[in-house]
Amino acid sequence: MKFMKLGSRPDTFYTTEAVRSISSEVSSDLIIQVKGSRYLLHKFPLLSKCSRLQKLCSESPESSQHQIIQLPDFPGGVEAFELCAKFCYGITITLSAYNIVSTRCAAEYLQMTEDVEKGNLIYKIEVFFNSCILNGWRDSIVTLQSTKAYALWSEELEITSRCIEAIASKVLTHPSKVSLSHSYSRRGTRDDVSSCNGGGGGESQRHRTTSKGWWAEDLAELDIDLYWRTMIAIKSGGKIPTNLIGDALKIYAARWLPNIPRNGFVHNKHGDSESDSDSESASEVNSKHRLLLESIVSLLPAEKGAVSCSFLLKLVKAANLLNASSSSKMELAKRVALQLDEATVSDLLIPSGSYLNGTRYDVDIVMTILEQFLLQGQSPPTSPPRSKFGFERRRSRSAENIDFEFQESRRSSSASHGSKLKVAKLVDGYLQEIAREVNLSLSKFIVISESIPDFARIDHDDLYRAIDIYLKAHPDLNKSERKRLCRILDCKKLSMEACMHAAQNELLPLRVVVQVLFFEQARAAMAGGKVAELPSNIKALLASHGIDPSKPPPPLSTTTTIAGDDQWSVSGLKSPRSKISTLRMKLAEDDGLDENYINPDGTARSSRLKNTICALPSRPKRIFSKLWSASRTPSEKN
After folding, report:
1. What string of H, E and C letters represents the secondary structure of 502-565?
2. Is 333 in contact with 368 (CB distance < 8 Å)?
3. How far, in Å, CA of 278 to CA of 449, rounded?
4. Residue 151: pLDDT band by 50, 70, 90 thresholds?
5. For the chain: N or C, fewer Cβ within 10 A?
6. How many whole angstroms separate alpha carbon 30 and alpha carbon 63?
7. Which of 245, 252, 244, 250 shows the shortest CA–CA distance to 220?
């Protein structure tokens, strides 16, 4: 780091009875009070360099021995005032990135300008600041961070803006051309220190070659306001790849955002006995984190793939728990939708923000993400309204263009066929997880299930698992609700293993079990190769359900891993007889299943279904044998 020494006299300040004085043969004639501290000093060295003290002394009455000056709002406090006072006495002082902001503000307050005396403190600080501080990487960051304590003064003196411009220019420059000193945060074990007296001094030693994102960890130490402005300046340069911007945001979020629990609610750690002060403190912390999150969202690059889908969903979880604005949540949902095929089931398990939802996971935000995923490729309005974030502060031209760029990215990134297949698999796995939620409504489960296009589900085994888990977790569903739930299941797309499980699943409606059994037997007959050609009535029945009688269905497989309690068990399926027994038991329970539904001929549908099931022999394959036998000609029979 750079430093500058001014003055040559030794330090002769001392303290007596809480009063700071300077050793001198001349009696003091000036008392200056700075924020509760008192200084016994001399008018001549101070007034010769401080225009403000000249004015205050001329306006205040003189006492018999000392004239008293009050400086209650002095910037930088007693430390900065003492540095200025020592400069007036010619005592050696040392300036560096750590104290240059407070000293510069104090000198401005005292009006230590060139009009009062040539080579005054303000001039020397400005030379050091421009020639040394702004040329060093670490010095610039330390100085920028220290402006937070003197925000108004730093803005008026343009210290903040100059530091931001210097940092941004270094990020946009090749690291080999930047004076790094040692990087600010973590890479060095000790600092390089070099003199810059009189505004000169050599460059600090350049260190080993750094990666393209060498600046990200250092900037992560900045507070969110300064970080936001610095990142806007960097993005406005247009030279940094969007993936590096995304990496920098990820580092910053990991540094400042609170840890997000994997599941469950955010509990009040102080319990019900929390005091009002603790409650206000927690609320203030949440507000700070909320502002931080929304600022990160506003900085996200518009390009797809600039940040990972996993990181975006972590931001969604944080937004949920911090009660971020709805506009920020929607912005994140749109960005997640662009890369939803990269997500995992655990990524989608977003903790609910409160107990009001009744479930551990927020299903509504996932439904919004799926909706946005299916809207990809559709043209947005000609003049879309500007997105309204939870805060509208300091939007640069680059930030204002983000909404338009994101819409263009969305229009040109319609979800591919392969991504829809992946998302279908993802959704079925997600359904298996949330199906265990006792308070998950049937309508939401069905809406999520039906959000996937039919062609995207190659098989329905995972969907069947989810339905089976939901039925087990919700035993109070009535018959109508179970039928409604199972309408989303396509029995033709179930594998043999799934069919065997469904055929004896007592939780399924009777009609579903009959349909599963029928297609299983039809598939088994076709795969056996014993029949050259199916009868016309069987062909018509299969064709009505979308099955090509000339082609046996391909084997269907599943890859989703589920809990042991929800694994299918087919050990009880020793013979087809057990399936018929299960059907007959279910028929006795469902005797009045469809009494309110009457066929055109006046007979109840349940009666026809009952007669069909009761007519099933102990070996179901005989049904098809009889049908085939009846359709053969006498010559074929012989």
Report:
1. HHCCCCCCHHHHHHHHHHHHHHHHHHHCCCCCCCHHHHHHHHHCCCCCCCCCCCCCCCCCCCHH
2. yes
3. 44
4. very high
5. C
6. 10
7. 252
**Which domain, by its residues, includes 12?**
3-133
pLDDT digits (tens, 9 = 90+) for 505-563: 999 998 888 888 888 877 777 776 544 344 465 455 556 555 555 554 443 333 344 44
Question: Is residue 12 pLDDT above 80, yes or no?
Answer: yes
Separation between Cα atoms, residue 8 and residue 90, nearest integer Å:
6
Among 554, 373, 549, 545, CA closest to 459? 554
In the chain, the percentage of residues whose pLDDT exceeds 90 is 54
> Among 624, 612, 616, 630, which Cα is nearest to 526's?
624
- Alpha-carbon gap, residue 570 to 625, rounded angstroms: 26
262 falls in which pLDDT band (50, 70, 90)?
A: low
Write the CATH number for 40.
Answer: 3.30.710.10
Name every residue whose Cβ is closer than 8 Å to that of residue 372 and which is 6 or more positions away in sequence.
333, 334, 336, 337
- Angle made by CA atoms 617, 622, 626, in degrees to the nearest 5: 115
Q: Among 245, 332, 324, which Cα is nearest to 292's?
A: 324
Provide the pLDDT for residue 631.
41
Place of tokens 């070099």: 194
Helix (DSSP H) and strand (DSSP E) numbers for the chain: 29, 8
Residue 34 lies in a domain: yes
Give the alpha-carbon dihedral of 556, 560, 562, 568, to 10 degrees: 0
Is the residue at 23 inside a domain? yes
Tokens found for residue 574: 């020793």
Burial classification of residue 524, based on how many CB atoms lie within 10 Å of its CB (0-12 exposed, 13-18 middle, 19 or more buried)? middle
DSSP string, 406-452: HHHHHHT-PPPHHHHHHHHHHHHHHHHHHTT-TT--HHHHHHHHHTS
What per-residue confidence (pLDDT) applies to 539? 55
Check whether 114 has a pLDDT greater than 90: yes
| Count of domains for the chain | 1
Residue type, 455: F
Averaged over 11-36, what is the pLDDT?
Answer: 91
Residue 542 lies in a domain: no
Match 């589920």 to its residue by tokens: 562
Helix (H, G, I), strand (E, B) or coil at 40: strand
How crowded is residue 251: how many other Cβ atoms within 10 Å of its Cβ? 16
Q: What's the mean pLDDT when you consider all of the chain?
A: 78
Say if pTM beats, i.e. exceeds, 0.85. no
Is residue 71 a part of any domain in this protein?
A: yes
Residue 432 near residue 566, CB atoms below 8 Å: yes
